[in-house]
Amino acid sequence: MSRQKLKRFEDLQNRHNVIEYDDKRFPNIKSNWGKDVFGNPNPINLELACGRGEYSIGLAKEFPNENFVGIDIKGERLWQGSSKAIEEGLKNVAFARNFILDLEQMFAEGEVNDIWIIHPDPRPRDRDEKRRLTFHRFLEIYKRIQGGTGRIYFKTDNTQLFEWTLNEVLPARDDIKDLHFTNDLHNSVYLKEHYGISTRYERKFSKVGETIKYLRFEWKA
Q1: Which tens digits make up the pLDDT trace of 187-201?
Q2: Does the annotation mark 157 as catalytic?
């Protein structure tokens, strides 16, 4: 590991806006994000597999009275996101180093408001479908930590992943409502829901002519 990476991992251990496995706050973080991280009782929203946290940071600016947590397992990426948040003086955005399957280690039932899944790894091989972030076992976790309320936002450049989610996963469920979707976000009425926020993946694939797919839905009460 390079000296730069080692230094960045050391930085993460000392940052208030980052929660890691060895953080003294980690064992008791459930239900305590407002008190131990944000210092307020405002709603908590998640960006999953957040990478550099472009959405967490962008949404935190757009909604200063809500809190945002970017989740990823890559420390190098979280360092970049947390550094940006610190540079911009954002107190309502934080980052957590964890696997998505382990979200319930960190969030209590009903603790999370909305969840954003932005350009996740498409896991194109059939044998990896259970690892896709819109697969049923993940949706069940999201539903529990959202308390059966709140919205799921999903955005991707990958047609296969989008169509699989829209045409196979969601129709098999009876617990969603108000499903909205588009195969071309940038030429749809839903573009305004993204507040001008984009990731490097979105910009990369848009440049080569790939349309950005998007859907959102809510849980039935």
Answers
A1: 999 999 999 998 887
A2: no
CATH number of this structure's domain 1-18+50-98: 3.40.50.150
Which part of the chain has CATH 3.40.50.150? 1-18+50-98, 112-221
Tokens 């979707």 correspond to 181
Give whole-number Cα distances, 7 to 52, 73, 76, 106, in Å: 17, 17, 10, 26
Structure tokens at 207: 């440049």
pLDDT at residue 201 in the model: 78
CA distance 171 to 102: 26
Task: Quote the Cα angle for 173-179-181, to 5°.
Answer: 120
pTM: 0.94
CATH 3.40.50.150 at 112-221, yes or no: yes
For the chain, what percent of residues have pLDDT higher than 70?
96
Active-site residue identified among 121, 128, 178, 184: 121
Residue 75 pLDDT > 90: no
* Average pLDDT rounded to a whole number, residues 102-109: 97
Per the rule left: phi > 0, alpha: psi between -120 and 50, beta: everything else, 92 is alpha
As to burial, measured by CB atoms within 10 angstroms (0-12 exposed, 13-18 middle, 19+ buried), residue 86 is middle
Q: Classify each residue of 177-209 as buried b or exposed e, where b means 16 or more C-beta atoms within 10 Å of its C-beta.
A: eeeebbeebeebebeeebeebbbebbeebeeee
